[in-house]
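lol ok so funny story. i was supposed to be doing the assay writeup but got distracted and ended up predicting the structure for this chain instead. priorities right. anyway since i did it might as well share w the group, maybe its usefull for someone
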Amino acid sequence: MLDSKVPFDVNFVYDVKELQNDRVRLVPFVPATFAQSLFDLLKPHPELFTYLPMGPFLTMDELLEFLYNTGHKQPSWIIFAILDRTKAVDHNRWGDGQLAGTIALLNTEAHNFSTEVGFVMVGKEFQRTHVTSNAVGLLLQWCFSELGLRRVQWQANYRNEPSVQTAIKMGFKHEGTIRWQRVLPVECASVGEPVKRNGKDEVPGRHSAMLGMYWDQWEAGTSETVATRMARTV
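and the output, tada:
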């Protein structure tokens, strides 16, 4: 059984570092440091998982299993803790900032200079604030300006309008809808597409909105658009 008190090394295809500005810190997510606080942040709000292919995590063991099997075992993933620096909080485990959620890079392919922003889990009290835009912006700046990536993508259930609009506001371009991309658990039927074949009901599926941002778009002005979005106060 995994133990939240035992840290494990970050395992990612690129060297990882802390990212920050005056509003937000992104710190590599080490369960020994952040898991209990994240569990406490998310557990009261299972609706945060409505469109996600994981969770809600009902026990700490479920959360730790997910973190280990994705954020650690797969080198294409790196999960960051999002810390809100505007709250003037100095925590005894991680220092400056109040835990606001998580954000990750996933499906990273170094040989293709590409990655994907995902696992954006922001606590209720931090939604519709500066937190998401600054967390996404810091990752984009790192990906394009430091790692030299050519493509960063964003996927979402096409029904998840808030997620799609968040990406568009940050400068991602809607590339299309990938039909029947995923099989969804039966409990997610309300946000999936019904399947009935040969007179029998099957587990639902998901149509995914695909959005992308590209290195030439970034250098042609999207970097300034992202910086403006991060700096907004309303």
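The radius of gyration is 18 Å. The mean pLDDT is 92.
back to the writeup now i swear
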